[in-house]
Amino acid sequence: MASHFRSYIWDPVLIISQIVLMQCIYYSFLGLWLAGVDGLVQMNRSLDQIFSYEVLGFSTTLGCLSMMAFILNSLTCALGLWFFIRRGKQCLDFTVTVHFFHMIGCWIYNAHLPAALSWWLVNVACMALMAVIGEYLCMRTELRAIPVNTAPKSNL
């Protein structure tokens, strides 16, 4: 009898659906965080805040608040990794995949790769935060003690 605990079966449908789910989590929560930032500074919402690398900068208040929204988004995405992926070994893979697709989206939106150093710094910091916190949460769950016997012992 072979054990089927955490059996690793190649399931491309599961992997693709998890990638799509993490992209949805990434953009929906980023939109919510940016809407909160826009409410603070009374700015109009725009796709530039998500995809334009020129918005993220240290020189303007909107740029700093947008960077804060990206960092807060990495924390909520780490919770998404913990809740939906549940595997510490896969957190880095899904984090890099989410940010890679975001870079492709920015590339398409701007018609060239992002050139601002602040965009790269923010995305690398967000990638590190999302991966480390997601992996920490998943590892805590994976390493939780498994109760073997919950029935009371009898005196023999």
Automatic annotation (TrEMBL):
One GO-annotated biological process of the protein: Golgi to plasma membrane protein transport
Membrane topology: Multi-pass membrane protein
Compartments (UniProt record): Golgi apparatus membrane
GO cellular component: cytosol; Golgi membrane; trans-Golgi network
Segments traversing the membrane: 12-35, 55-84, 91-111, 117-138
InterPro entries according to UniProt: Integral_membrane_SYS1, Integral_membrane_SYS1-rel
Sorted UniProt keywords: Golgi apparatus, Membrane, Protein transport, Transmembrane, Transmembrane helix, Transport
Pfam families xref list: SYS1
Protein family membership: Belongs to the SYS1 family.
Function, in words: Involved in protein trafficking. May serve as a receptor for ARFRP1.
Subunit annotation: Interacts with ARFRP1.
Name of the protein in question: Protein SYS1 homolog
Native organism: Danionella cerebrum
